[in-house]
């Protein structure tokens, strides 16, 4: 089926936006990017004020810590609030958050059942909904396969086959399809419907709900209560779905359901690290220190990126020692709990991340026996 004129115009528009974004990302110098980010902050705050909104930074790791210093100290907007679901972050990040006066939010609360009114814990989410693993996008797809309904039938079919049906414009090989690597392991939920012979885990679930209950909902609720719109530390260079949305909607976005400013959208990691140095940002211990290689590039001596401890998003493409290894080194007891004891089978047998990592083929534990030299990449890293 040929494309309509409208579809072709839409595609051109997307391509133009992407090209303009990439040009800024690739061609602007570091100092120009900093000035550009400064303008974005000023414009966003001005527009927010005109519309009657407050502004806040959703603070997590080094990117958003740097953003907070940038907005407050460099741009001079000291009244921008800092909020975080800090309890999920590494202790060294929580320590820096305390120094900065970040307001700590609690996870979303149970709305019914025996724990009504009490905040969800990560253990409860893993047990009830499943483990956040691979990527948010992939976990979301697997979660749909695990929870079939009449309403999500078309989407499930697209996840397995790539065929989107009438509502998706009859596409044959859409991006909805799970890659072959993950279809082999998780496509089995649809074997009967699709006549396939894929596998599926029978003793753990996968879900993207963890972020929703522990981070997104608490932040959204806080923002509503305080009539505030967020600054986020996202950079398109980090890739994924976020990159696409940043290129499409720009750095400051006032959409119908989403409002946000990402002043560092066009930054590369190098720009961010340089800015962190220039602003004298306290670097949480989990990252080590920011150092310069002989070729001039900046790097952090320990973790390159963080997030919650024991989160499985991205774990399959991380080099060893990966983030679970780092926790083992730092806090073997905590590691042991999350690896083997955080959930229970119906018969009471404890289990944890080890089961999930075994299933997806990610090594963990003793590095000497791991059959992998730290820092070495496997061919699978490039397959998805
Ligand atoms: S980043 Fe990972 S562990 Fe943290 S809230 Fe999101 S899914 Fe959960």
The total beta strand count reads 12
Terminus-to-terminus distance: 29 Å
Pairing-aware structural class of the strands and helices? alpha/beta
Mean pLDDT: 90
Q: What ligands are attached or bound here?
A: iron/sulfur cluster
CATH topology of the largest domain: Rossmann fold
The run of helices and strands is HHEHEHEHEHHHHHEHEEHEEEHHEEH
Q: What is the count of distinct domains?
A: 3
Strand order of the largest sheet: 3-2-1-5
Helix content: 40-55%
Beta-strand residue percentage: 5-15%
How would you characterize this protein structure?
Helix content is 44%, strand content 9%. The protein is globular. α4 (91-100) links the parallel β2 and β3 (103-104). The protein has helices spanning 5-27, 30-51, 62-74, 91-100, 122-128, 136-146, 153-161, 180-186, 191-194, 209-225, 240-249, 269-278, 323-330, 332-340, 353-360, and strands at residues 54-58, 81-84, 103-104, 133-134, 228-231, 252-254, 259-261, 290-292, 298-300, 312-313, 343-344, 350-351. The longest helix is centred in the N-terminal third of the chain and has 23 residues, at 5-27. α13 (323-330) packs across α14. The protein starts with a helix and ends in a 24-residue tail after the last helix. The chain has 384 residues and is an alpha/beta fold. It has three domains: 5-111 and 227-268, Rossmann fold; 133-194, no CATH class; 312-382, no CATH class. The model is unreliable at 370-384 (pLDDT under 50). The strands form five sheets. A four-stranded parallel β-sheet has the order 3-2-1-5, sandwiched between helices. A two-stranded parallel sheet has the order 4-10. It binds iron/sulfur cluster. Residues 88, 132, 210-211, 214-215, 307-308, 311, 313 line the site of iron/sulfur cluster.
